[in-house]
Amino acid sequence: MATIVKRKGKHGKIHYRVLVRKKNTPHASATFPTLSEAKKWASSQEGSPTLPVPTRTFAEFIDRYIAEVLPHKKSSTIPEQAQQLRWWEKQLGHLPLYGITRSVIAEHRDILRNGITKRHTRCSNATVVRYLAALSHAFTIAITEWQ
User: Fold this and answer.
1) How many Cβ atoms sit within 10 Å of the Cβ of residue 11?
2) 57 beta partners
3) Residues with Cβ < 8 Å from 69, sequence gap 6 or more?
């Protein structure tokens, strides 16, 4: 789907910015001096074949984080965080990385919250927060360092 926005430059000149979004592909954008050129480019982009979707899985992502980042953390936290990340991997490892959405994480957060521990009690809120914090840091590293 294409979106065309009329923009005024520094010197009052009008430009048209086009943003084309297609499911499971990177967004494409360009700027044109005329509306007709912008529309022409947008229609050509919408009709072009989609790029192949990266096929990395969530399991590969977690494995890389455990191998590359976890060894540099405080040694007393490594086993617990590895166990937490392995839980996420067991739950979501089969999904492609682009399939991990807020709703998927929230759904599995609730599964964790209602889960039964080894001591036959429900998981505490603090435990759930720790699991989410480990996952959050993994995503932060992936976005900032691995892109």
Assistant:
1) 5
2) 96
3) 138, 141
In this predicted model, which residue has the larger pLDDT, 68 or 21?
A: 68
- The CATH code for residues 58-146 is 1.10.150
Three-class SS state of 69? coil
What are the distances in angstroms from CA 17 to CA 13, 25, 56, 125?
13, 19, 32, 46
CB count, 10 Å around CB of 84?
Answer: 19
pLDDT for 40-87, tens place per residue? 988 888 776 655 556 788 999 999 999 999 999 999 999 999 999 999
What is the residue extent of each domain of the chain?
2-47, 58-146
Question: What sections of the chain are H helices per DSSP?
Answer: 35-47, 58-68, 78-92, 102-114, 125-141
